[in-house]
Amino acid sequence: MTTLPRRVVGGYAAGSVGTGGFGVLPGLVLAYYLTDTLGVAALIASIVVVIPKAIDVVINPVIGAVSDRAAATTGSRTRLMRLGAFAQVPAFILTFSTPPSFGPAAAAAWVLLFFTLSAVAYACFQVPYVALPTELTPDYDERTRLISVRIAVLALTILVIGAGAPAVRDALGGGAVGYLVMAAAAVALIAAGMTIATSFAATRARPVVGAGSADLHHRDAFTAFTGNSHYRILLTVYVLQALASAVMLAGAQYVATYVLEDKGALTIVFVALVAPALLVMPLWVRVGVRYGKRAGLLAASILFGVAALCLSGAAAAPGPWIFGLVAVAGVGYAGMQTFPLAMLPDVIDEVSQDRGRDQGGALSGLWTAGETLGLALGPGVYLLVLAATGFVSSSGDETAEQSDLARTGIALGFSVLPALLVAGSIAVLLRYERKATP
Questions:
Q1: Are residues 261 and 235 in the same domain?
Q2: How far is CA 350 from CA 354, 355, 434, in A?
Q3: Helix residue ranges per DSSP H, 75-174
Q4: Is 1 part of any domain?
Q5: In the chain, which stretches have pLDDT less than 50?
Q6: Segments forming the whole domain that contains residue 337
Q7: Among 73, 107, 365, 429, who pairs with 61 as Cys (CB 3.0-4.6 Å)?
Q8: What whole-number distance in Å separates Cα of residue 328 and Cα of residue 321?
């Protein structure tokens, strides 16, 4: 096994400070910001959080093609990554800076505009970033190690930003000032992680197939999706699991507020879901080396799904047992994050060799488009569950009373819905054979 220098591994992992921060914070608080601070109806809020990420489905493959062209002609993907890190700062802050004088309709439009710009900036970094492992090392097991370090940093980032940012917001009393300071503090870390990854990892990566080729197109990813079973299955599994985890993250604040009746319990729920990754990541690496990445992903998915399903009794019998089951789900969540990203470079190699040119950016573009769509649909789908069960939105410091049906919807959306999505992903994963076929 060819071992990567620690400087490169650490630099690559630092990028997860950016991807983790952006991935978790909007998913955790944006829907709640819309419904319980700005007074936006749950149905409208679901549209606001979904549209910006849906746009990524269109633009991410284009960004991937641009990244491949840059890699083929200059040997580097850093220009887009730096652009994304720079543009993210103002767009992210403005997303959570809605003028207090705005009514619900104007507030929804404001958030929609700036969250869309923030999502585009994020895509400029994320697409080439996801393509890097293929170019950093060709070794099958070293890619698992590289991704495992990244996921450990991701988990730590999610803990710091996911738990710390809402704490900053709450310490300042919530509202406009609380969300503004929270966003500024979080995006400082996000941009720093993106910049470090660009400087220490991206500059060491080189295209592996077809360097110098000008025959690159944004449709390459869709061609691979229809023509390569490994890529098609793996992407489908990853999107379903991203959607499942996003639904659970979106529901955490509502479960804390309306089921556990303690807004501060969000921090405990969040830590219980994410912290296990810091402890079990070496175990998942050993599972991947011994049994293979597909087997590891299957085991992690089953563990997450069973734990999520068992949480369905939260509304009927809320209590500390919820935190324990969330922690079990967190062990599975760690593996669900690690193995697909460790398998993607192997698939990129396979497709690139078939096509005779580097396809890393193109495939990563569609991959990140699917991921971001799943992460966006999570809060949107959860909000639809709330709307269907009669959830009542709040504004300012008010916390509306919820019916028993609404509380049941909050709990089932947090548990049964993610379990069903993961069950669907398992059914798809079982079709993943060792050798890809058209």
A1: yes
A2: 6, 9, 12
A3: 78-95, 104-136, 140-171
A4: no
A5: 209-215, 436-438
A6: 218-437
A7: 365
A8: 11
